Amino acid sequence: MTKVDRPEQNPEQNPQEPSRRRRRILIVVGAVVVAALLAVAISVAAVRGAQNAQARAVSTPTPFQLPTPDKNSPPPPSASPAPQSTSSSKPAAPPKVDPRYGAPVAAVVSTGTTATLAGGLTAKLHVADTTAKAVRAGEVAGPAITVQVELTNPGGTDVSLAQVAVNAYYGKTSIPATELTDGAQPLLGTLKAGETRTGVYIFSIPEGQSSSAVVTVTDAAGTPITVFK
């Protein structure tokens, strides 16, 4: 028989060596891919962090800082205190209301004397006893006084007489007298500049009380009255 020579087998060759090489290659490639993915993720995170920081820097206002004062600049002027009034005068107190007449009294003058009223007109009164008739309901006929009021307008403008008020009181307690219409001619209309007019007022006064009668006159509402005795 012919002897067939078989190739000698290298003891160092391992039939599993190619499989191990492929496995190593796959591991290396996988590691490279993972590293690349990590690098991409880190880059994206860094970019987003920079964008967020920039957005916060834009949205957050920079605090205002006062400039540092220069040591060589002059100091700011100090505020001057408000000037205090040197006047020691106090505001005039409002006139007191006289409880007898329910109004403040500007002056007390004698009947027949010309007096300047609070509104600027001048007045002069004449008072006489009389006997009046009852004309309207509520009036009582009997003793009364007739009051003639002479008003003069010394100013340069016309004055309405709508606010002229004439009242009478009698007795120790200043009882208001009832005004009557019998023979009365109250002042009405307008008193022109420089004009003088006379009105007549009638007041019921009990018998024997005419000597205690006083008459008050005012030429403007809310002004003090002038008392004629």
Widest sheet: strand order? 1-2-13-12-7-8
Assess the beta-strand content as a share of residues: 25-35%
Mean pLDDT: 82
**Fraction in helix:** 10-25%
In whole angstroms, how far apart are the ends?
A: 186 Å
Using the alpha-carbon principal axes, give the shape.
Answer: rod-shaped
Oligomer kind? single chain
> Structural class of the secondary elements?
alpha+beta
What radius of gyration results from the CA coordinates?
59 Å
User: Order of SSEs, N→C?
Assistant: HEEEEEEEEEEEEE
Helix run count: 1
User: pLDDT under 50 segments (min length 5)?
Assistant: none
Question: What this model shows, in words?
Answer:
With 229 residues, this protein is of the alpha+beta class. The chain is built from 1 helix and 13 strands. It has one helix spanning 17-59, and strands at residues 97-98, 103-109, 115-116, 122-132, 142-152, 159-160, 165-170, 175-176, 178-185, 190-191, 196-204, 214-218, 225-228. Strands 1-2-13-12-7-8 form a 6-stranded mixed sheet, with no helix packed on it. Strand 7 (165-170) and strand 8 (175-176) form a beta hairpin. The chain is rod-shaped, with a radius of gyration of 59 Å. The protein starts with 16 loop residues before the first helix and ends with a strand. The mean pLDDT is 82.
Question: Layout of SSEs?
Answer:
Layout: H1 17-59, E1 97-98, E2 103-109, E3 115-116, E4 122-132, E5 142-152, E6 159-160, E7 165-170, E8 175-176, E9 178-185, E10 190-191, E11 196-204, E12 214-218, E13 225-228
Parallel strand pairs: 2-13
Antiparallel strand pairs: 1-2, 3-4, 4-5, 5-11, 6-10, 7-8, 7-12, 9-11, 12-13
